[in-house]
Amino acid sequence: MRTNLSIRQLQTFAEVMRVGSISEAARSLGRTQPAVSSTISGLEREIGFALFEREKKRLVPKPEAHYFLEEAEAVLKRLTKAGRTIQQVANLEKGTLRIACNPTASSYFMPHALAEFLADKPNVKVSLMMRSSAVVTDWIASQQYDIGVGESSEERSTINARRFALPCLCAIPETSDLADKPVITSRDLANRPLALIHQKNVLGPKVRRAFEEADVPLTHRFEFESVLPALRLVSEGMCYLICDSFSALSHQRGYKEYSGIVFRPFEPAIHLELSLMSPAHRPMSKLAEELVDLLARKLEAYASYKG
Q1: What is the rounded CA–CA span in Å between residue 73 and residue 40?
Q2: Residue-wise pLDDT tens digits, 205-236
Q3: Pairing state of beta strands 261-267 and 184-185?
Q4: In the chain, what are the domains?
Q5: Where are the alpha helices (DSSP H) in the chain?
Q6: Single pTM value for the model
Q7: 226 neighbors 104 (Cβ within 8 angstroms)
Q8: What GO MF terms are annotated (predicted)?
């Protein structure tokens, strides 16, 4: 037998059981006695059996009423909890975010952005995974994650992407004679030890090409898969590095006065394109939309950073 119980029926029944009479239930519910009595009668018709014995003007609960009360209260409690949860979601106070980003973004940028975003959201859960930009892009394309940050690739119909062109800077040991120059060129770095990023990283080939086109010899001392480890050697005075402003600003903000590095604009100009990604075939939650807007504003600041 299928029943079509209403929330009002369950609330009215539970209140009658709590106060013990139709008149008291009507008073506490702000309804008329006939309306409460009609609701109870309708509930009994719906479930197919009587819940009360009618004795003159009193309702005496039958054993079935006490059992049904447990079920009714459980349903009402669950509905109340669901209502609170929906309100928290609407107020961006509750939910889950799944984020994937490349190593550079995961070291400083994303944790600090999340700390700011989640400061007043103690009930929001976050899963943050670090992978290569290629893997991050694939995860977003497969609609597995809410937000991704990584080096830009070709456009894909499965991804919504905001692209940011990050200028590259020259990382210089603060004790170097080049530290006072406002702009560093490839010729300034001739015969100076350089840390290079591996060819499979999009930045590596761009830096090599800049030196080749300027016909400047490149003194290749170190090679790294990513930028952040190379910056540690720059801070020790062992080499120079051409890196993106994303890595530069993350390093500066992370180490502050202990950085040991100054960053200067590099010529010829090189840019690293970074993408803020979200799935194209899955609606974004309000939480994800708010976080994407915050990340976009922060990435715009990185794109304008000049050292």
Answers
A1: 16
A2: 889 898 999 899 888 899 888 788 889 899 99
A3: parallel
A4: 7-90 (1.10.10.10), 95-307 (3.40.190.290)
A5: 7-19, 22-29, 33-47, 63-90, 103-104, 110-117, 133-141, 203-213, 227-235, 245-255, 286-303
A6: 0.64
A7: yes
A8: DNA-binding transcription factor activity; sequence-specific DNA binding
